[in-house]
Design goal:
The protein is an alpha/beta fold. It is built from 9 helices and 17 strands.
């Protein structure tokens, strides 16, 4: 197989040829059709997440066809299309796994971070953490649902059922969850980098009732905001944008330093909550409703060999929606 491999932090990914991986008893081998490019991949490459396994093949928004089954795998078949998300394995016996919080497992493995991911022509995944994807839709359009969609869904559940929701950072996750919010009959307020009128126009085209810079206040207090942009300074900004009793949900796995802010910014029962990873139940729920919503993913395709360019374009916001690697 061929892959783009990270051998050391802060260096470009390298094109390598490796033996085809053999699945273990509980694993499946997947011939990859598409892999989304996520901001978490940038955090891995930049060394901002501790304890990465190096060398590593990044990528955790994988869609492909099963090529081989491990000896213990049941319920899946060769040729079936599946999706592989960030959460790639849990221990099954820690407190969190036994209390319905497997996303907080004490001994997890993460796709593209502590086990090889999807910047490749082939990969191996724990069969229990692979979602059947059916035959509807193209691989490139489904891949971003495996993280941008799933994390956005978990963030939305944490945000509650308020009618006015703000989204800071209008990239892959925000453009997907905007469509879910509009389908649910809620209002979306989009916050972009100051002066980024292209992203603001994109947000409005998807149904946002207001779009402006992250340095602006919305025209009315919001019920909740979700921070997709990993910028710590947006947390106090988000608190100022919500009503009394509102909530700020931090959706990133990494965030820059949060500046000090006065207590009255938080007071009146405003809440701050973070989202970590996802559960398999999140995946089942979201992938069930996605076809009902009719989510249309705006993506920019790149050849697998161009993964470094895709990451650089993501870093500098050079495309709308999501980026997807095609082997």
């Amino acid at each position: 197989m061929f892959a783009m491999q990270l051998k050391a932090h802060h260096t470009p990914l390298e094109w390598v040829e490796l033996p085809d991986p053999e699945p273990g008893p509980d694993e499946i081998r997947i011939r990859i059709g598409a892999c989304g490019v996520c901001r978490t991949d940038l955090h891995v490459v930049d060394g901002e997440l501790p304890h990465a396994t190096l060398p590593i093949i990044p990528g955790h928004e994988i869609v492909g066809r099963i090529d081989k089954l491990g000896s213990n795998v049941t319920g899946l078949s060769v040729g079936e299309r599946v999706g592989v998300p960030w959460l790639g394995h849990t221990c099954g016996h820690c407190y969190y796994c036994t209390h319905g919080m497997e996303n907080l497992c004490d001994h997890p493995l993460f796709t593209g971070f502590t086990r090889n991911g999807g910047y490749a022509t082939m990969t191996v995944a724990d069969a229990r953490y692979a979602f059947p994807m059916g035959d509807r839709g193209e691989d490139k359009d489904l891949a971003p649902l495996l993280c941008a969609g799933l994390i956005g869904w978990r963030c939305l559940n944490k945000a509650g059922d308020g009618k006015k929701i703000g989204l800071y950072g209008f990239g892959a996750a925000a453009h997907i969850i905007t469509q879910v919010l509009r389908w649910q009959g809620r209002k979306v307020y989009a916050f972009t980098s100051p002066g980024d009128t292209q992203k603001q126009d994109f947000a409005r085209s998807l149904g946002a009732v207001w779009a402006g810079g992250s340095d602006e206040l919305p025209p009315e207090p919001l019920d909740a905001v979700i921070l997709f942009a990993p910028v710590g300074a947006l947390l106090p900004a988000g608190l100022k944008a919500i009503r009394k009793g509102g909530k700020v949900v931090c959706g990133g796995i990494h965030m820059s330093e949060i500046p000090a802010f006065s207590y009255d910014t938080l007071w009146e029962e405003r809440e701050i909550v973070s989202v970590a990873n996802l559960t398999r139940q999140d995946g089942l729920e979201f992938l069930k409703i996605a076809p009902e919503v009719g989510i249309k993913v705006t993506n920019t395709p790149y050849a697998l060999k161009d993964a470094n360019q895709a990451l650089d374009d993501l870093r500098h916001g050079r495309f709308d929606g999501a980026a997807v690697l095609l082997p």
